[in-house]
Amino acid sequence: MRYAFWPGCVSKGGTPELYPTATSVAEKVGMELVELDQATCTGAGALGEHDPKLVDVLNARTFALAEREGLDTLLTICSTCQGVMAAVNYRLREQPEYLAEINETLREEGLEYKGTLTVTHMMWALVEEVGIDHLKTMVFRPLRGVKIAPFYGCYILRPRYVLGMNEHPNRENYLEKLIEAVGAEPVDYEGKSKCCGFPILTINNDTAVTMVGNHSSEAKENGAHVMVTPCPLCHLNLDGYQPNASSKRGNNINLPVLHLPQMIGAALGFNETELHLKRHIISTDSFVEMSGIQRA
Amino acid sequence: MATIQHDVIIIGGGLAGMRAAHEALTQGGDVAMISKIYPTRSHSAAAQGGMQAALTEEDSWESHAYDTVKGSDYLGDQDAIEILCREGVDDIIAMERMGVIFNRDESGKIDARAFGGTSAKRTCFVADQTGQALLHVMWEQLLRLGLKTYDEWFVTDLLVENNRCVGSVAMQISTGQLHLVRAKATVLCTGGAGHIYAPSTNGLAVTADGLGMAYRAGASLMDMEGVQHHPTTLKSNGVLITEGARGEGAYLLNSKGERFMENYAPNMLELASRDVVSRAETTEILEGRGVDGTVFIDLRHLGRELITTKLAQIYELARDYANCNVIEEPLPIQPGYHYLMGGIKTDVDGRTWDVSGNNKWKGVEALFAAGETANVSVHGGNRLGGNSLLDTVVFGRRTGAGAVEYAKSVDYGEISEASVKDTEARIKSLFDRPDGVRSATLRREMGAAMNDGIAVFRNEESMNIALQKVRALKEKLPEVSLHNSGRIFNTDLLAYFELENMMDVAEAIALSALSRKESRGAHARTDFPDRDDENWLKHTLATKGNSGPEISYLPVTITKWEPTVRSY
Amino acid sequence: MQANLKIQRYDPEVGEEPRYDSHQLDLPEYATVLDALLQIRDDVDGSLAMRASCRSAICGSCSMRINGEARLACKTLIANIVQVEGAEVTIEPMGNMPVVKDLVVDMSMFWDKVQKIQPGLLPKTPEPEREFIVSNDSMLDLATALNCIMCGACVSDCTVLEVDKEFIGPAALAKAYRFSNDPRDNATDLRLDLYSQENYIWSCTRCFQCVQVCPKDVAPMEKIMSLRKQTIEAGHTNNPGTRHTQAFADSIRKTGRLDEIRLTVKAFGITNITAMIQLIPIGWRAFRHKKMPHLLPKSISSIKNVRRIMDKLGNE
User: Fold this and answer.
1) pLDDT (tens digit, 9 = 90+) per residue, B551-561?
2) Can you tell me the ipTM of this complex?
3) pTM score, two decimals?
4) 3-state secondary structure at position A248
5) CB-based burial of residue A121 (10 Å sphere; 0-12 exposed, 13-18 middle, 19+ buried)?
6) Structural domains for chain B
7) Where are the alpha helices (DSSP H) in C121-259?
8) Which of C208, C221, C287 is most worth mutating to test chain A (most A CB atoms within 10 A of its CB)?
9) Interatomic CA distance for residues A265 and A269, integer angstroms
10) What is the DSSP letter of A261?
11) 3-state SS class at A223
């Protein structure tokens, strides 16, 4: 399967471990990625707070770039990008007149979005395109005995109608399915579908850090050895600010947080370097050891 | 003894109660509002289609008044109807000023839609949730003004000394604690009698509380035979489908696909008044042209755009509770209990007693009532759609003013703490009862009996059966036992108090209906099919006697419009 | 239709921990969760405490958590959820508010928050003799907020309120939108000033939970986003939220992408010394783990087009 690929800014910036791992995993499972190097930031939900139309135009531009490549599906590896793009795509496809208005703005660059694109996240593509059964056959190193807490965050779950949940109701359980597919055991906890706090990190730091502490502690208390998330922004907060959450709570939470492609990659046999696990704030040593991942 | 005290206590937080509170407050009164549910939960929110007033230059309040008089089948008091229609214009403007987002016409003025029994388009509306829009705006204003409210307090009894209401006993539901409530003026705005009938369009909270309490306190219940069945309700749960749907042009069809209203009201068709349409539907069903006890409302020709904007709630209700997409298919509906035209007899300022001192009717001094609880009477034998919301704001306002004015003229009455102890002892004895019947069982049986005997059509025999059934059920009240003897949020206890209120009122309805030996408005007797102005152009009054309700009569006030033949 | 209801029970007078009661019920095809609960309360266990009235999703009484999500019991058909979510239906009281008994929560915090946004239209002066002349569209726009029935579902499931009790919350802010966008209101600027303060619009994390659970399609979060735009346009910009969204635009204009370092610094405000000092160990941590973003990120080669678009849309 060939995809237009939008990696998102953070996968190369704040979480540089994500991009190389995700692209290697994609290659391994047979996803051909055509990266859109002229695409822009999606606005991440924040830009729309003062300029919603700009968000629609910028993302329509990205969709048009994908269409220009002759592709019908755009793959993301960031839940936030996924959520924003899915919402824009929904709006544009539902309202042809509005789409025409947006296209006016794109015309000067020779671009037009025809409304043919589907936006999908690597998590969905792994289940819906690659398939759980096929993925299982590719597992080289089952993560047996590892208890993994799925952390979905918001943008890949809500709102349902934008994210195709009516057609694919199981999308709310894909992380668990993937955790099982790699031979690990999913850990259930309430926080898995709540907000990580990242969007207001700079606005209300206290709330954002408290959320990190709540979710990682709850997962840990329910037995998780490690957490996995399909969203690099959640990762930035859950991993990057976990030390702050620990000191706020007065106990060392110490729960490693994986990007989804890292969990898949680990099971596919990638070594520690290929998984870029040294680039985490919370040490992943315990996970490396438990899973038998080859050290650098 | 826990006591609260305010010059004016309003019982009930629906639109009438809030409008009364607003007026009392803006006139500088010491006022508080008690409601057994949070005010925004009140059943006023369920009014859908709109609120009438002659706002345009082509229309006139006199025309509105005439339509209302005719709709009432000449049983409405015309002095009150004139006030309703004349002052209602300013009341709608006042509500707009408070923030109600009435739908607008192209010029930006308040738009209006057609409604049943009206000669002009004069029903102002907010999509199909007008009641909710009015209720919430009223509530916003009361928040702004800082009205003192006692939310989720249940009034168990009115306290009457020397035929004057000196207060009430109320229970804070969240704690179960009883309070003595002292007031110079007590205003009942507790809504209708909803769950005396089953099925019913009314909310579960509508349980005739004010009616029952006022009756026991000695007030008169007037024209209680006036029970309105709404022509379009859902079969599954009795939920209302607005008259606004027909106002926007929906058809009524029988099983043959015929617009049967052509045979009953050739001029007004689906927009005849409610009693006429409900009778027509019932006749179609009885004569075999229905399907499973229903006929159909057909909105398809109105189109998706109109349905999803002006009738959006209806679209959802049909989808959720009848699995019907009204854009694509006709919706099965049937007449169902909706509104009580009868109520506590008041004058045009909400007073339940005769201030002339002539004792033309039995009332209780210092006790006021407004809204569906009251009967002024503007609806007479049949209420027009769009007139109940108007009734709540016009007479809510006047009653609020009346109560403040009265409270200024009197001192607090003497009140005995024994009454609270009585209530406490009653609760205790309820908790101590051995296992018996469930109050819900009696409520359901009462609902079925009333619906069987005193519905769209009725006669001596059917009404007698209903009355005997209700009396038999009432005798079972001492056998009711509770599942819960806790004090915190004990809804089992409330259900019992509510049932007592409903039983008293059901009995009054049955006796009033039996007494009126003619057909008028919604009171359609198969044994007396005609209106009889010579003998029955008068109100029925039901007051508490030694062995149940006693019936007496009061003349109808006629100002401008002499009774004539009523046809649509 | 058969259904298995698992209901959370709690009675403070007994003082025990919450427990779950199970009920097997035979229900009509179109039974709602409320119908099922009423059947239980009427006939099986009258001690079950809950609120309910209209049965038609307009009074807002019967919100509760059904299978973990706040919904109106009267609007939730058992058949629909059993089909998608399995045969057992779990019923619990709403979240974020203290439980009074069983399914009844103390909503005083909810009402207090509505009071804080200063409800009540203050009509423009001089008042017209008759109604205000306004467009139908302007009223329809308010209707999207006024559809709110104050059921509390959004507040129950708000992920911010769970950790920050001071947040005004989605329902009250949807109500706020209704006033600040009412063309007849006389206090728009005062309102916008209030709403841009701490604990109001900028405390929302945009988690979409309220949009998801709202039974009346009010989409409170979208109202909050509109309020953010409105406050910024009205010049209430001296707050971290405005700086944050503005920094996004700046970054996209500069490179087409997110410049995370500058974004963070700008969002906190370079003059915010405390924040700047707090950023030092975080930056050091990132640097040590080789995850420090580029200090001088490159622009995409077509950045001129992006800037042109932004100019055209008037985004400065």
Assistant:
1) 999 999 999 99
2) 0.96
3) 0.96
4) helix
5) buried
6) 231-337 (3.90.700.10), 418-530 (1.20.58.100)
7) 136-146, 153-156, 170-180, 188-195, 209-213, 220-233, 240-255
8) C208
9) 6
10) H
11) coil
